[in-house]
């Protein structure tokens, strides 16, 4: 279907018929067949800001995953409608922290007498009710492009941080960017009583990391960094902070998808780059910068299957439905959740 000219033409026509009534956002991990129809592409942070900056668009079609569309619904006005072209486009990391599990964790922190000095910070990659939990309890949202500033903010308000749900982004930011030690971090496992931690461990920790991870980035190994360095002399290793700590410590550069693109833009012609992030983006980087040698850090890692759920047929269906007056796959967050999640998102947007 990718290059089906009939589908491309249908998408073009439906989008033209909608005109300014529709605004299409595309995350960098989306397929090329979809990204060609995005009015703006970006990392999670940029897309959240772009959604908030389009008050005149009646429909926001979000080509990305569910938690991004939820955040867009929270950040847009109540008359605007956010559409996710395939409702099955979730995120396995976001699913690793449920509201009940996080409430139970907070009770464990209360029992240990540390909830009062702990600030909850959630990665954007979480459901709206987890964001709302953070909003209600004095915490904030962060993305991979502002995690350090969010953690600095949190540590200015409390002694400890509960970081949800990506242990790797939390650990990499705390240890590699803020000078904390690995011993300052503990991992809370929601499937074990008390998170699998003793009260003493909770008392001594500065960073309480949720045991969650990205199923795509978690598969890059430190060995593949060694392999690529042996294979390509002078290669620059560039990875996303959702990669494991052992991988990130071996890399040359680490940052969000927007940062990864900027790094390649600035790179001299002829330079070599091994990129550890989702495959749609890495392939696109190769096509965007033919004068640079771009390789995928580990050929055994594959696409993000949920990002890939949004394909051209789903986009065509969503746009044609909207053009014919039918709103499909609308993502809505209830008022109370939206209010508190909005508080946590606004704290992120207000970071210096
Ligand atoms: P960023 O685009 O914010 O770097 O996020 C990556 C990601 O995994 C989104 O699912
Ligand atoms: Fe979730 Fe990872 Fe896919 Fe991003 S790449 S949507 S974090 S599973």
Automatic annotation (TrEMBL):
What is the enzyme's class at the highest EC level?
transferase
Q: Which domain of life is it from?
A: Bacteria
The protein here is known as Quinolinate synthase
Protein transport: present as a keyword of the record?
no
Cofactor(s), names only, from the UniProt record: [4Fe-4S] cluster
Residues that hold iminosuccinate according to the record? 27, 44, 123-125, 144, 240-242, 257
What pathway annotation does it carry?
A: Cofactor biosynthesis; NAD(+) biosynthesis; quinolinate from iminoaspartate: step 1/1
Q: Name one Pfam family in it.
A: NadA
Organism, as annotated: Streptosporangium vulgare
Gene that encodes it: nadA
* Described function: Catalyzes the condensation of iminoaspartate with dihydroxyacetone phosphate to form quinolinate.
